[in-house]
Amino acid sequence: MELEEGYKSQMETLSPVTVRYHKALTFYRYYLDKSVPLIKERWAALGFLLFLFELRVVLSHKWYLSCYAHGIFLLNQFLGFLTPKFDMSLQQDEENKELEAGERADEFKPFIRRLPEFKFWHISVKATLIALISTIFNFTDIPVFWPILLVYFITIFFLTMKRQIQHMIKYKYIPLDIGKKKYTSSK
């Protein structure tokens, strides 16, 4: 009860704008927390936002540089999603030292992402909303020759993914959990 009264007295001393900001932030966090278990719905919403942004760019024939920057940002976030949190080369060196010493411990080491799935989704949604809002203003439309940007983006994408896949093969990890593993009973 004291905590509630202290919170109310603190909110009374703040300006009305600050109080509304805190209420809006609480509202936002509440629904963000409720969206955590809704994985398919969250990604479908992001897909819809991406579709709206791309549709806006294609139909207006503008904002190609914004689209390119948005694509590079999402590629960077995707790499964070695919990359392990801990450096695999250091772990590999430690395992080699254990093998040389003859004390190999076969323990399960789970894959921990550098950028968790929810944060990846949340950052991608915010970036897509910012990119979509930027298409409202003409001063954000910087004229460029878009085919060069497209070729450059495709080149960067394939080179980066090639390097990431080579890293995954070298250190033997799979960052994607596709479906739940099903076990059959031995009866």
Automatic annotation (TrEMBL):
<comment type="function">
    <text>Involved in the retrieval of endoplasmic reticulum membrane proteins from the early Golgi compartment.</text>
</comment>
<dbReference type="GO" id="GO:0006890">
    <property type="term" value="P:retrograde vesicle-mediated transport, Golgi to endoplasmic reticulum"/>
</dbReference>
<feature type="transmembrane region" description="Helical">
    <location>
        <begin position="120"/>
        <end position="138"/>
    </location>
</feature>
<comment type="similarity">
    <text>Belongs to the RER1 family.</text>
</comment>
<keyword id="KW-0812">Transmembrane</keyword>
<dbReference type="GO" id="GO:0006621">
    <property type="term" value="P:protein retention in ER lumen"/>
</dbReference>
<dbReference type="Pfam" id="PF03248">
    <property type="entry name" value="Rer1"/>
</dbReference>
<keyword id="KW-0472">Membrane</keyword>
<feature type="transmembrane region" description="Helical">
    <location>
        <begin position="144"/>
        <end position="161"/>
    </location>
</feature>
<dbReference type="GO" id="GO:0005783">
    <property type="term" value="C:endoplasmic reticulum"/>
</dbReference>
<dbReference type="InterPro" id="IPR004932">
    <property type="entry name" value="Rer1"/>
</dbReference>
<keyword id="KW-1133">Transmembrane helix</keyword>
<protein>
    <recommendedName>
        <fullName>Protein RER1</fullName>
    </recommendedName>
</protein>
<dbReference type="GO" id="GO:0000139">
    <property type="term" value="C:Golgi membrane"/>
</dbReference>
